[in-house]
């Protein structure tokens, strides 16, 4: 459990005591002394753990999920991060993280896919181009994401950085300015709306590519007119190449620098997720497809309405 995740949800919802009361062994992370959580999980497996769980953000969830999948152990998600997109698509109650502990006493098991970028697991997405550059920026690390998102149309229409080429399912996206490769496709044009994944067990990666040539196209996307400039693909493998030996990549919100070409693939049904029998999560109303929505997917953060001009 990460006590700083989500502004202190672990303490606010008394998750440590509640988990221990149910017989769980709890390791509370010390943010002042960063720890390899994957190694911590592997040590727990060596001591005989029969389930691994995380109360923290999506990046930490992904690290431990990879260990659980590798050992065939069930995995439990506690929504103690900021946005908890993986938990949302599992239908968990993000308003009360403690309800996730019900999986220990009245749970059911789901089989879900995991995304891989190289050998690194991701539960949500990997971002490239402008999105990845933003994740690496000091402004992003300082929490100024709304300001950055306001500037995205301008960033997109001024092509900078390596030229990307994306290949998936026999199709090609040439020179996109921003790309999201997701563990199962995000929904477009239905009641669930962009931002949710209808399934986490479809066995394919989703691809969203943004390619605008001028300010008019950028403005159209900004207003939710996604017919031009937004390309969606799906495939078992996605290859992102560039005219540079290394490119920035955001993996579940963590900034990395990876050698090209970058290969992403899907591992179907490898993760056993233990969830409460009763889960409140159902698809909500359809949001517009705008920079705010796309930014939420890329950065794992909500952006206030005032942060985008319509």
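Q: What amino acid sequence fits the structure above?
A:
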């Amino acid at each position: 459990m990460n006590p700083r995740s989500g502004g202190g949800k672990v303490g606010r919802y008394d998750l440590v005591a509640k988990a221990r009361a149910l017989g769980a062994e709890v390791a509370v992370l010390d943010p002042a002394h960063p720890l390899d959580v994957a190694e911590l999980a592997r040590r727990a497996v060596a001591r005989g753990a029969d389930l691994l769980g995380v109360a923290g953000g999506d990046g930490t969830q992904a690290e431990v999920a990879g260990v659980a999948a590798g050992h065939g152990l069930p995995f439990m998600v506690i929504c103690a991060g900021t946005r908890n997109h993986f938990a949302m698509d599992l239908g968990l109650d993000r308003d009360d993280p403690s309800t996730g502990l019900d999986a220990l006493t009245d749970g059911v098991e789901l089989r879900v896919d995991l995304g891989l970028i190289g050998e690194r697991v991701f539960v949500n997405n990997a971002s490239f181009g402008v999105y990845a550059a933003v994740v690496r920026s000091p402004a992003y690390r300082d929490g100024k994401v709304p300001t950055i998102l306001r500037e995205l149309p301008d960033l997109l229409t001024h092509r900078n950085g390596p030229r990307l080429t994306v290949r998936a399912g026999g199709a090609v996206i040439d020179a996109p300015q921003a790309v999201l490769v997701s563990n199962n496709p995000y929904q477009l044009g239905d009641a669930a709306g962009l931002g949710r994944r209808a399934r986490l067990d479809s066995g394919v990666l989703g691809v969203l590519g943004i390619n605008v040539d001028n300010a008019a196209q950028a403005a159209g996307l900004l207003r939710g007119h996604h017919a031009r400039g937004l390309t969606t693909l799906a495939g078992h493998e996605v290859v992102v190449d560039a005219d540079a030996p290394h490119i920035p990549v955001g993996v579940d919100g963590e900034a990395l620098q990876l050698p090209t070409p970058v290969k992403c693939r899907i591992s179907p049904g490898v993760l056993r997720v233990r969830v409460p029998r009763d889960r409140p999560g159902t698809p909500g109303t359809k949001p517009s497809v705008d920079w705010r929505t796309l930014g939420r997917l890329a950065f794992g953060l909500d952006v206030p309405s005032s942060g985008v001009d319509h």
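Q: And what stands out in the fold?
A: The first helix runs from residue 9 to 12.
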